[in-house]
């Protein structure tokens, strides 16, 4: 086991371009399995149900691309004077923080030269392009795998029975639990992330902060990273907004409203909607975020919670691992 388990995770890390889309496809296949069962009861041909699911995904992807185009257009339409003002405001804000922290203003100015900033952005442009390309490849491969799984009548219960549980009753119960958990997670996460992104965009519009659509998209995407994603997006938006807001009172109000939105959706509504589906303690979530983030980077952090729930549900079926599952609760 000491040899097999590390080797297994090395294979998962090296073949992430295959395993990440495959696991995403499995989770979305679980999401649409109730629809396929309903269509079967209504005597609707399976290929028609598959076409409906494919159309839904194509529309969803097209909407995401349209929103990304709006955000990019919003950034590209900004004139040079505005970018210079953004840079000057940001430099003044960093200098104020450095002075408060007791650092030398001259040393900070040496690292904030405009040429250095432009060269840094230019050097990282390739990394940004590779990240975007990898994201689109994951999305399209996930759709491809999901269609294959659904068309081939994906039977998760049978897989659990053959590979792990060796018992039809236990495998059926485990599969139903996993399906309900993953379906609720995906649905609630999409709704909460969408509401958070819309609220951030409206907040930026009301306070006349630059790039409101971009901040909404950033909040929507990062909110899928459990616990830390919404905090990161809120912090980045607030730091950027501080450089634009005219007075201290307006700045405090903006930050308070942003934190209130994050707490409302992330700390109040999401746990209420999730209910007891994800009875996993905070320490387990943080450890799994770092672990799956190391294995698969950002996609791993997004998939960390559903993967952990799946592992915990399966471990609850065995006497030897039931105590570990109880510690995770």
Portion in helices: over 70%
Characterize the biggest β-sheet.
Answer: none
Order of helices and strands: HHHHHHHHHHHHH
Spatial gap, N to C terminus: 25 Å
Query: What share of the residues does DSSP label as strand, in percent?
Result: under 5%
Q: Name the poorly predicted regions.
A: none
Return Rg in Å: 23 Å
Mean pLDDT: 80
Overall number of strands: 0
Quick structural gist:
The chain is mainly α. The protein has helices at 4-14, 16-41, 46-76, 80-100, 105-111, 114-151, 156-165, 168-206, 212-222, 228-242, 248-274, 282-315, 322-328.
Describe the structure in your own words.
There is one protein chain. The chain is mostly helical. The protein has a domain at 167-329. Helix content is 84%, strand content 0%. The two termini are 25 Å apart. The relative contact order is 0.10. The model has no long low-confidence stretch (mean pLDDT 80).
How are the SSEs ordered, and which strands pair?
Elements lengths: L3 H11 L1 H26 L4 H31 L3 H21 L4 H7 L2 H38 L4 H10 L2 H39 L5 H11 L5 H15 L5 H27 L7 H34 L6 H7 L1
Helix pairs in contact: 2-3, 2-6, 2-8, 2-12, 3-6, 3-9, 7-8, 8-9, 8-11, 8-12, 9-10, 10-11, 12-13
